[in-house]
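worker-3 :: picked Skp1-related protein
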Amino acid sequence: MSPTAEQNVEGSMVAKEEVCYRFHSKEGREFTLSKSAAHLSVLVKQMVPDLGIDDDEEIKTMRPIPLINVGSEALALVVKWCEHHKTMPAWEEEKWWLNERDAEMRRWEREFITAMSPDQLFNVFSAANYMDIKCLFDKCAEAVADMARGKSVEEIREVWILENDFTPEEQEKMNNENPWTVVLRDIDIKARPDEF
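worker-3 :: tokens ->
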């Protein structure tokens, strides 16, 4: 695949003349990401100069960058996000209130996030963390928090397929050492009495 392809993964459009980086997912599948979208990834911004690449011609001929911690499905979604956000200003982590998007962008982001299964969300969240894409990481973190809000520990374990590796004795010890556990459990029982 040419690094200046018109059509990218999952229908993300990249202008034909745009310079693109190439990446290999952990499965070895190749993806392209336009230079204008790649600025969202701190990993890419730091890696490219470290590789001694400083002009567009070198980018066009460079070997794909291996992303050994990012699966193909997650990378496809990351590329789609970045291409859609490539004209957005840099994400202000310390001044989160400056990151407000217009209504159309917020709608697109909400649809993008809610279309993912919990597994996909977790994998994209991990990929955004690995590639240091702050805007995507923050949106995934919000979604994970929303999924956990109001759920018991058991419900969260079920959603995220997490094993409870504590013995009953260890669990009891933790409950006794942390008095908030009892208070929060009582609040949860009062808030949802029909489930008990």
